[in-house]
Amino acid sequence: MSKRKFSVRHVPGAAPIAIVTFVALYAPVLILIANAFNAGPVIGRWEGFSGRWFVAAIGNDAFRNAALNSLIVAALAALISTSLATMAALAITRGRRLRGEGGIFVVLNQPLLVPEIVLAIALMIVLAQIKQATGYHGLGYLIVAHSTFCIPFAFMPIRARLEGMDLTLETAAMDLYAGRFYTFRRVTLPLLAPGILAGFMLAFVVSLDNVVVSSFVKSPGQETLPTYLMGELRRNLSSEIYAISALLLFASVTVVAASWLITRRKP
Amino acid sequence: MLEIKSLSKTFGAGVAAYHALRSVDVTVAEGEFFTLLGPSGCGKTTLLRLIAGFEQPTGGQLVLDGQDIAAIPPSRRPVNTVFQSYALFPHMTVAQNVAFGLEARGTAPGDVARRVDEMLQLVQMDHLRDRKSAALSGGQQQRVALARALAPRPRILLLDEPLSALDLKLRKEMQAELKRLQREMGLTFIFVTHDQDEALTMSDRIAVMEGGRLQQVATPRDLYDHPANRFVAGFIGETNFLPGRAAEGQLRLDGFAPVALAEAKAVNGAVTVMIRPEHIIVGREAPDCVQTSGQIDELVFFGTDTHVKLTLPGGASLTARAQNSLHSATDLNPGQTVPLSLPYDALRILPDEAAHAV
């Protein structure tokens, strides 16, 4: 008899624990989705299947406005953070070793280490000064704030992709008369593209569902989808909120799934 | 013509300095198949990377057709490389890979297309032109890498152990094909390998390297018959080394009577004498030979010949090679003592070890 390698799967009770965990994680979400399709207005009393709350949500100006803000902020914050993350990843994995590389790494990942509420307060204080000084109260503040904490999320898949890339390919391009920029455009960038896209999508999702930083930084009257939901919840718990949550969930899952599919392809 | 003049490369500095190349001087002629041969870490790949421009020399000159190219970046050197790992662009098709160098140079699209067709036909890869390079076998990738490097018409083609990833049969085929291509195009090839058989069969001249230095540059025949030192003698082919002394034109192998030898005139004192296994005559006494006898320890059958491992009366061991023609070598048995003849003209005197210790 050969000794079987230790595996958590063979620990007694592992399967029931796993099942309980999955139920605890996903049952509330499933209940939420079910309620979004409930024809009646009262939570917990099923009155038949209906898409009326989705229709109502889409017809709601405040929701549409918040959703649009969220999409604009998420798209631009993802774009900015992905660009910065790409440059940082290239600087770290290419060329000679930078001095204080460890420090750079810590700074880049700072938003993962600093408690979000602290970051939110810090951003609020600084941005409030600028608001006062400039008189500008637009979406720019949210975009800048979101860009900061999206950087590490965009950085991780890009760096992983770059580190898995064969450096000889760039050497080969230079050997074949390609200058630095031509090499980057024809070889490095196309090979890096899946990493950049995955980074962009992760950043997009992280921005899309952010509540804490948005609540502190947004100007009066401005709403993103999550802050709008928070506000509505305080007033009344309607099935429309479930419909909106279901939409947000659907958007997030779609983006994450797409990002997973893209990064799964090997270089 | 490529002239390499006192070329050096040192990585790091101070106590951590690593001298990858120590003042190498050699000239590669037009249209020559020139091979850099040596064990790993001997500096052959560093020399190739310096010629390609991937590394900057710390000293010396690289003169191509009268122009010093040491300061020119790889993207502007008329030299292309076939990489050990092939380094094909995985996101491009076979044809796109071959076109890359031409496009990067700004060649007109019509000319690119024509040259790509020509190159793909040359390496017989035309039928796979639209295949992604990642979906090719090792041998096919090798052909595409070759076509890609040849397409921009380099002055010199550099090949960095290009056949080492192929299995034996494919390697033999590619050796013949590379040699054919090189001869037909009349192009200068600088070929890096650690495989002595590959070097001997393909090269016009071979530079044997060790410890960042050129040990000897010669034709395969010269290298085999007249190795400059013990390292070269041991690295190329199989060899027996016997200790001896030379004085006044006479060579005395330890334990034997002195022999008058023209080669011995140039040296005095302790020497190492080399004799190739196939030059030793086993089983009979022959004229103009050092006569001795040996006890057979082991017989190893190799098909065309049999390796005979022997112990000489003085205790030294020797390997001989007896050809398996129809009527020979079959009557040898382990334990048997047989006469041995070492022909005078097969003895090579090498300078004593200490003189060229690395």
TrEMBL record, chain A:
- Which biological processes are named by the entry's GO terms? transmembrane transport
Instruction: Name the CDD domains for this protein.
Output: TM_PBP2
Q: Which InterPro entries does this chain map to?
A: Bact_Polyamine_Transport (IPR051789), MetI-like (IPR000515), MetI-like_sf (IPR035906)
Q: Which GO terms describe its cellular component?
A: plasma membrane
**Pfam families named in the record:** BPD_transp_1 (PF00528)
Q: Give the record's membrane topology.
A: Multi-pass membrane protein
ABC transmembrane type-1 domain location:
67-262
Name the domain of life this protein comes from. Answer: Bacteria
Which keywords appear in this protein's UniProt record, sorted alphabetically?
A: Cell inner membrane, Cell membrane, Membrane, Transmembrane, Transmembrane helix, Transport
**The keyword Transmembrane helix is assigned to this record:** yes
**Where is this chain's protein located in or outside the cell?**
Cell inner membrane; Cell membrane
Positions of transmembrane segments: 12-37, 71-92, 104-130, 136-155, 187-208, 241-262
What family does the entry list? Belongs to the binding-protein-dependent transport system permease family. CysTW subfamily.
**So what does this one do?**
Required for the activity of the bacterial periplasmic transport system of putrescine and spermidine.
Q: What is this protein called?
A: Spermidine/putrescine transport system permease protein PotC
Q: Which organism is it from?
A: Pararhodobacter marinus
The uppermost taxa in this organism's lineage are:
Bacteria, Pseudomonadati, Pseudomonadota, Alphaproteobacteria, Rhodobacterales
UniProtKB/TrEMBL annotation, chain B:
Q: What InterPro entries does its record include?
A: AAA+_ATPase, ABC_SmlMolc_Importer, ABC_transporter-like_ATP-bd, ABC_transporter-like_CS, Mo/tungstate-bd_C_term_dom, P-loop_NTPase, PotA-like, Transp-assoc_OB_typ2
- Report the source organism: Pararhodobacter marinus
Keyword annotations for this protein, in alphabetical order, are:
ATP-binding, Cell membrane, Membrane, Nucleotide-binding, Translocase, Transport
- Domain (ABC transporter): give its ranges: 2-236
Classification via PROSITE patterns:
ABC_TRANSPORTER_1 (PS00211), ABC_TRANSPORTER_2 (PS50893)
Query: Which Gene3D superfamilies does its entry note?
Result: 2.40.50.100, P-loop containing nucleotide triphosphate hydrolases (3.40.50.300)
Q: Which GO terms describe its molecular function?
A: ABC-type polyamine transporter activity; ATP binding; ATP hydrolysis activity
One GO cellular component term, please give it.
Answer: ATP-binding cassette (ABC) transporter complex
Catalytic function, reaction form: ATP + H2O + polyamine-[polyamine-binding protein]Side 1 = ADP + phosphate + polyamineSide 2 + [polyamine-binding protein]Side 1
Q: What is this protein called?
A: Spermidine/putrescine import ATP-binding protein PotA
